[in-house]
Design goal:
Helix content is 63%, strand content 6%. It is mostly helical.
């Protein structure tokens, strides 16, 4: 080939491809190629690979949902954080006024059942939302149920009710009703806040101050939404800074009444802000159809078996010709199953997490409080989360992205399990220190520790327990936040609440395991229970990573969310005609 011919060919190659030829280096990325996409348009593969990815700010409606969740969590933690003492200590007993006098095991059993119940009921809320009412209306309905339960709790915890024996019955009824209410809210509020963000595909943006071209990544925005969401949850849980003192100096009823008032405030924000929310209509019999499709998968041992196209080719004379779904629905269901499969390891984590509101509270009661209520120590968990979330979101995560280091959800979840194991190992060390100190050694609360009729605990300062809560809080940022994010991003649009409820259900399984461990919650056996949980959480984290690390490499593909018609996300005030039309179009 002549020199002239080679020059012509090189010119043609430069015109056809967004690259420049260098005779020494070969083809390499050209800056012009990375700036070829106009702002607002989807980036090409070179831009996705080479430009920095950023998250967007939250819309105002997302902040309103976050405030509602803050108020609900203020109520839940401020109330349930008192349950261990309320059920454990007798009326006018030591370390607070007490109430039901069920003892350590009885109190741990009831508080663990409360956790279990609160994470089973989200299934009910998910079915009601996805099939009948939609997320917003479901949250309103279950908020009313929640408030009824709070009223029962307040009324049966006043001193006159306790003296007349209404405490135990009222407490059981209250936790059943409140658990139903919180379950209906929990399965819907997490997907509702992410629904407020409408972008589904990556886009190019030029930063005004620096002129840098970046990629707006919806997956990173969803991650930011759930980081802020979880931060609001833990700001709300700081109610435990107030309610333990109200318990000690006024009575349990006062703490419960404060929680009721805060929940009423959150309900007002929910109702007043209804015009701002982006609300998706319910999708009919989507959940029952999903279970029918799953049954067909099991019977045929093939995940594609429920597809009408598969039935037409492979069904033969037994082919199902009247299936109420199309092939796309089955593809969505398979995508949801990926998330549910990842959640299988979470019960181990939740057993560890549940210790901070149960056995950790009792452990604090076994040490010298120096005027600090034993159930006040729980606040170091949300405080650590509130401190670490900004550090990670505004410091560590952007630095990792700038250096093109990907900290994918599967990796974050595995790290969360390992950090949780450190919390349990530290708790075991603290328990050993308690048993090594007088005056009661392996039998804390013995008569030798009584001062003016109250137990003072063994000679170990209560503050030494702090790192255990810090480890638990840090583990939540990695494991729990990433779980919320995974449940939303991997769920198809029609099953957001249902997949979220499946994630929450793993907490119920964890509570069931913790309930089975209740017989071991006595001195001195509880030390070895802490050690066992530390080993179990560490091994679960390692096995989880080995099992699912391949999903890290499929993350971008799975996060290519469906290109939904923006009209399927309607303001709450849309007309009934528009709702009906869009539901028909979706079907």
């Amino acid at each position: 080939m002549s020199s002239a011919d080679r020059d012509v060919e090189l010119t043609q190659q430069q015109n056809n491809f967004p690259q420049v030829f260098d005779e020494k280096e070969g083809f390499e990325a050209n800056e012009k190629a990375l700036s070829a996409t106009p702002d607002g348009e989807e980036p090409n593969q070179d831009e996705i690979k080479n430009l920095r990815h950023i998250a967007e700010n939250l819309p105002i409606s997302a902040w309103l949902v976050a405030v509602v969740e803050l108020c609900e969590r203020f109520t839940y933690y401020g109330m349930s954080g008192l349950f261990q003492n309320y059920a454990n200590l007798p009326l006018d007993g030591s370390q607070g006024r007490g109430a039901l006098g069920l003892g350590h095991q009885g109190a741990t059993g009831l508080t663990t059942f409360n956790q279990f119940w609160c994470y089973v009921t989200p299934i009910v809320g998910a079915i009601v939302a996805d099939q009948y009412l939609g997320k917003y209306k479901t949250i309103v309905v279950f908020s009313i149920i929640y408030m009824i339960g709070l009223l029962i709790l307040v009324c049966t915890s006043i001193p006159s009710s306790l003296e007349h024996g209404a405490g135990l019955g009222g407490f059981i009824v209250a936790i059943l009703v409140i658990g139903l209410g919180t379950g209906g809210i929990k399965s819907n509020v997490a997907p509702l806040i992410a629904d407020q963000y409408k972008r589904k595909k990556m886009a190019i943006k030029t930063v005004e101050k620096t002129g840098e071209r970046v990629v707006i990544d919806p997956a990173l925005t969803i991650q930011r939404i759930y980081m802020i969401f979880y931060g609001c949850i833990n700001v709300g849980s700081l109610s435990l800074l107030a309610t333990p003192y109200m318990e000690r100096y006024i009575g349990f009823w006062s703490g419960y009444l404060l929680c009721l008032c805060m929940f009423a405030l959150g309900s007002c924000v929910l109702i007043v802000g209804r015009k701002f929310y982006v609300v998706r209509p319910p999708q009919g019999s989507i959940i029952t159809d999903a279970f029918k499709a799953l049954w067909i998968m099991v019977v045929n041992r093939n995940m594609d078996a429920p597809k009408p196209s598969w039935q037409a080719v492979n069904g033969g004379r037994k082919a199902r010709t009247n299936l109420p779904w199309d092939d796309h629905f089955i593809d969505e269901l398979k995508r949801a199953l990926v998330a549910c499969r990842v959640f299988a390891f979470y019960p181990v984590y939740w057993v560890v997490y549940g210790q901070f509101s149960g056995n950790f509270v009792t452990q604090a009661d076994q040490m010298e409080g120096h005027g600090v209520p034993n159930d006040l120590m729980q606040n170091f968990d949300p405080i650590s989360i509130i401190v670490f979330i900004p550090i990670l979101e505004m410091g560590i995560y952007p630095i990792l992205r700038r250096f093109r280091i990907q900290f994918r959800p599967i990796t974050r979840i595995a790290v969360g399990f390992v950090v949780a194991s450190l919390a349990m190992m530290y708790a075991a060390i603290v328990q050993h220190l308690i048993y090594s100190a007088g005056p009661c050694y392996e039998h804390p609360g013995c008569d030798a520790s009584l001062v003016d009729g109250q137990t003072t605990g063994n000679r170990v300062h209560i503050a030494i327990q702090t790192p255990a809560y810090v480890f638990i809080g840090l583990s939540e940022i990695f494991a729990s936040v990433s779980g919320l994010e995974y449940a939303y991003t991997k769920a198809p649009p029609s099953m957001k609440s249902f997949v979220q409820s499946m994630y929450l259900l793993t907490n119920a399984f964890g509570s069931a395991i913790a309930e089975a461990l209740t017989p071991a919650a006595y001195d001195p056996a509880i030390l070895w229970m802490f050690v066992g949980l530390a080993v179990a959480s560490f091994l679960a984290g390692i096995i989880f990573y080995i099992t699912y690390r391949h999903l890290n490499y499929q993350e971008d593909e799975m996060n290519a969310l469906d290109a939904e018609d923006p009209d399927t996300a309607l303001p709450h005030e849309a007309s009934a005609t528009e709702d009906k039309k869009k539901e028909e179009n979706h079907a």
